[in-house]
Every structure is written in structure tokens, then in C-alpha cells.
User: Fold this.
Amino acid sequence: MADKRESVRIKDGQQLRVLDEAARRRRQRKALEALEEDNFSEDPHADLKMSKKAPKFDEGIDSSGPGPKKKRKSRGDFKLRYRKTFSALLEEEHMLNKDGPTYFTACAPPSTLPERHFCAVCGFPSNYTCVQCGARYCCIKCLGTHQDTRCLKYTA
Amino acid sequence: MATLILDNGAGTAKVGFSTDSEPKIIPNCVTKAKNVRTRIFIGDQIEECKDLSSLYYLLPFQKGFLVNWEIEKQVWDHMFSKDVCQVDFNETALLVTEPFFNFPSIGESINEVIFEEYQFQALHRTQAPTLSCYKHQTDKVTSGSLFGTLVVDSGYSFSHIVPFYKNKPLKEAIIRVNVGGKVLTNHLKEVISYRQLMVMDETYVINQMKEDVCYVSTQFKKDISIARLKYPENTISRDYILPDYTHIKRGYVRAPEDSGKAKGDEQMIRMNNERFAIPELLFYPSDVGIQEMGLSESIMHCMTLVDKELVPHLLNNIVLTGGNALLPGFQDRVFQDVRSMASDDYDVGISTPSNPLTYAWQSGCDLALDPIFPSMCVSRHDYEEHGHVACINKFNVS
Ligand SMILES: [Zn+2]
Ligand SMILES: [Zn+2]
Assistant:
């Protein structure tokens, strides 16, 4: 542990790189976006689309039900017509729904309870903030781990 | 005419006929498995997959809203087929749920898919909490006041606090907390990957571990001190053995007295403060930097937005639903928090249905039998005659 401490001091003495406010916010935003991700890695079989069991798009579902088979042309283009990103939907809502309760008004407001802080490394309550990146840590040991593995190791 | 009930959650769809006693629970997604190149898995077909490591998910929902029909259509086709429900569209009405404040264009897409692609005979669109409120009111015949019901629905994408006056949702007082099961699992993946073992691609496994060992604390500070101790004083720590899908088919908790190092080739995760710190996000979203009130604080905030006369009724009639209500300690925590924040003049009454995940679906079955139900539906004829307007006028959505 003594070694770690020393290495920290040498680093400090040479050149202290500190993330500015904008970079910290960027990093925080990325962390929040990561919480919404469906997958971490890329699709391993991006080329693989259909199973034999799955009905093909244009077959519609006329072939499955036992009812009388109607000749009917599926307007399969609905999948594209209704394909909107979430941000596009928000924008639309913003334009069309000016008054009355909306998706936006329903969002919980910021908490009035005092914020709690936990060590990024071990998860226990933390009293210290890394001066370089703003992450929380609880002890020298965790600070060392943080500096060796995260901190400025990846740039936001 | 039969009625199919579809509680179309972003995590799982609950589907079945109103005459069924239980719904089928179908993962609302298409999955690809790392080691299976020959096929994809639609919904519950994933049960046929022997190796559930490194699954790749295609989800029709984004932030709780249905945005990708390319995927949803595959899941619905499968659910309506003989493999799951065997729907005869010529003889069936559909009751389907959607989130509060669903966007109008998504609503239109649902109308169109239901009536034009599938040709159901009739449609009723509503929200899961509205169904839950209906069942809570009809089940609770003995109690006094049913003027107000407060449904807390904590699901996959987010959690909603929904106050009702009788059966009517008070939309101006609905609160959405953007924390649900997905955020919990993703955060757990993140902390385990940093602290112990790279599991960022193991959503399925880690979600199962979350369901197996996480709980909601009712004594957070005390649990933190216990988690700092060593075995046997540390009564919280659990060693969780991960599945390898050859010898170990499913993850499991090792008995505390056997805890220690991993044996042989097995992979082990030690769940200590993570067991309760992860579900804390439901109550303190700010723990991960989401600047929103948590569930209990949101309940109290909701009380400031409704008619004062209704507050005692709501606080005494809180119903907890959604998958996160299955976390041990969830109800105790909500009670403890609300009791401590609410005025002593009010009674606080909270209940959790025996299955909070399928409660809305069960309620849909009851509603489908209610004599008023047909009048709540838009028929295919109405839709063909009047289009989306018929639906806008009939359903209390968006
Ligand atoms: Zn620490
Ligand atoms: Zn740092």
C-alpha cells in the first residue's frame, strides 16, 4: 500500500491531469446511457434473421389461424411507417401535446433527500472524491485500485 | 366470443384467454445465442436453448415504449400461434395494455396491427395499473373506503405511482420513476464486472442472480455494517455459483457454511453489499446519478398533487405490483418509508397481491367477464368505419 501511495504522489508531482466539468458530465451521461443498454457487445450473428419456425413477414398470419382463410394483402409496411426512435417520439409529443399531463410532466422530480455517496470500487459508503475525475472512494486502498483501473484510464 | 388478455410488458408479456387460470409468461424479445448459428429464439422459445450464456437481445421496447414492430410482430405472431395461445381471430376480442402517456402514434400502430394485420374482432386498450385497480376494488369487498387506490407498478423499464379516484386514474398526479428491473440488472452487471468478474454480456445469468439473492433492505445502515464483517458475523454475504451450462445448468447460492473460494473450474460471484445496494436504486435513483425521487418519496410527492380529501384513502389503499414487488422486503420498505413520512393522522395500508407480476393480467380476466366490458371495446366494424378516432374516443389512453 505504501508503494501505491508513493506512486500517487509522484504522478501528482509531475502533472495532474484533471477532468473538467464538461468531461465529468459527459462521463456521467455515458454511465446513465449504459444503464439503458439492451446489450453490451455487438450482435454475434448480425446476418441471422429468421428461424424456420417464425412466419415470414409477408405471409402475415393468415396461415396460422384455423378460421376461414381470407385473401388479404398485408400492409406489412406498417413496420417501417411506425418505426420511430424514442427521441423522435419525444419530439413529436413535445410539439403536439402542449398542455395537460404528459410523459414529460409525469417524470419524478429531483429528490429532496440528502445525496448518498458510495465507493466506486467496493460499494461501501464513501467520504472522499477523486480530485482528478470526481469518482468516489472510501480508503487509500480503493483509491489505488481506482487509479490503476478507471480514473483517467478511459476517456469520456 | 373469446377474449384474449395481453399484458404487454417491456420485459415479459403475460398472455392467455380470460378463461385460463394462469397466463403464459413470454419474454417480450427475440434472442440470439452465441453458440447457435442456425436459428433465433422468439419469446419463450429461449427455453429450448441449452446454453444461456452471452445471449444477444432484440427488444421491441425502448425506455418502456413500443418502438420496433419488426421484433414485436415476431413475438406476437408466436404468442397467437398454436405454439402458445392458438387464437382464432374471427372469434376473439383482445384486451391489451400499454404504458401511461403512451405516444399517439404508437397507439395508432397498435390499432392498425390488431385490426388490419391480425383482424381481431374487438379491442380494448388500457394500462396495467388501471386493471390492477379494478381487481383491487372488486376483490376488497369487505373493507370500507374504495374512493382512492394507489397502484405502485414497478416493472422492467420504469416504475409508476398511479392514484385512482374510484376506477379513474388521476393523470395529472401520476409519477414515473425511471428505474425498473432493467436498470437494476445493468447496474449489477456493471459493479460485478468491475469488482469481480467480467459479466457484461451475461444479462440472463445476472438477472437470474439478482432474482435469486437481491433484497430490499429495511435497515440500510445496519446492513452496511453487517456486510463489513467476516463470516460468520457477516450474515449477508452469499457465494453464488454461476452456471457453465454443461455441468451446472443454473446458478445457485452455496450454503453460507460452505462459502469460501471457488472449487475446481467453477465461477463464483460473492454477493455482499450488492445484495441490497442494487435494489436501493428504486428508492434512491440518485445513488447512480439519476436525479429523480425514488418510489417512497414519489408516493409522498404524489399526495401533494391530489385532492386533500383523497389522501387518507390513497395511503390506506396502496397496492404493489410488477416484477420488482417480488423482491423480498419490498413491501416492508415502502411501508416503513411511507409511515415515517406521512402524517400520524393517516393510516397506511399496503398490500401485495400473491403474484404481483400477473395481477394485472388476472384483473383483465375479471374485467372481460364484467357485463360492461363489451361497451369498453371498439369493434372491427367501428374501426373500419371510423378509424383511429373510434379508438381515441373509447379508450382512456394517452
Ligand atoms: Zn472502497
Ligand atoms: Zn479518479
Observations:
- The first strand of chain A starts at residue 128 and ends at 129.
